[in-house]
Amino acid sequence: EKRARALKAGNSMLVEVENLSKTFGDFRAVDDVSFGIERGEIIGLLGANGAGKTTTIHMVLGLITPTSGRISIFGKSMATHRGEILEKVNFTSPYSTFPFRLTVLENLKVFARIYNLKKPRERIDEQLERFGITKLRDKAISGLSSGENTRVGLCKAFMNDPELLLLDEPTAYLDPEIAWQVKNALLDAQREKGTTILYTSHNMDEVERMCKRIIFLHHGKIIAAGSPIEITQAILEEEREEPALEEVFMRVVKGKAA
Ligand code: ATP
Predict the structure, then answer these.
(1) Is residue 248 part of a domain?
(2) Pseudo-torsion of CA 194, 76, 228, 31, nearest 10°?
(3) Which atom number of ligand 1 is nearest to the Cα of residue 25?
(4) How many A from CA of 52 to the centre of ligand 1?
(5) pTM for this model (two decimals)
């Protein structure tokens, strides 16, 4: 019966990561990490600079090869079904990788072709509208502010209507109003389409509000996982009524919880 329950639980997992590690030379950036992401959840990946968040996301995306461990998405192994899996996945990165001489529209058209979209222009305009950058359509990437660039990245990420979004600091560089718009766009996607989202942010209030579940990385290891209140109680080792992730974060980086 235990096995049946485990199998059933396993089936509802959209992403399963088992014993994942990555070493660069003799430095262990990600150290024996295991977690699952359920379909339709927004899950936060937290940790200090250098904790291993981006490295983990890049392995889940197949951008770098794990030193060891297994990743399966939609019930299929990333090692053997990468192409098929990635058709239904997308991501953002805090560093723009768009050809900077091309305009926003030209850049997004390239992605529309890569994703083989049926009505590319319609799809692109929809995303530009969603992230409030319609007026930047014909501007070169080189002339954009950091926040504008972040939003072009989000347009790209939503264009293929992904089932799974891996967002590395999607609200970095955004002013409070735009950050609010972006968070609503993520919540809408989750509510209306059941999009599953893994995301990182250094804004603890935002994570508290957005994520039902959080994975906390420290020096490449998961030191806590659960709801914001569960993580707060586990790390601070006391009863709390409200989550206090900022306090948790400070406690962890000062080494008291490591
Ligand atoms: P941040 O909040 O700063 O984005 P992060 O949690 O995303 O941090 P990672 O980018 O995953 O951290 O980096 C984890 C560690 O691995 C860092 O110490 C980094 O210097 C190291 N690292 C990452 N990529 C490489 C690489 N290609 N070669 C060597 N070391 C690397």
Answers:
(1) no
(2) -160
(3) 29
(4) 6
(5) 0.90
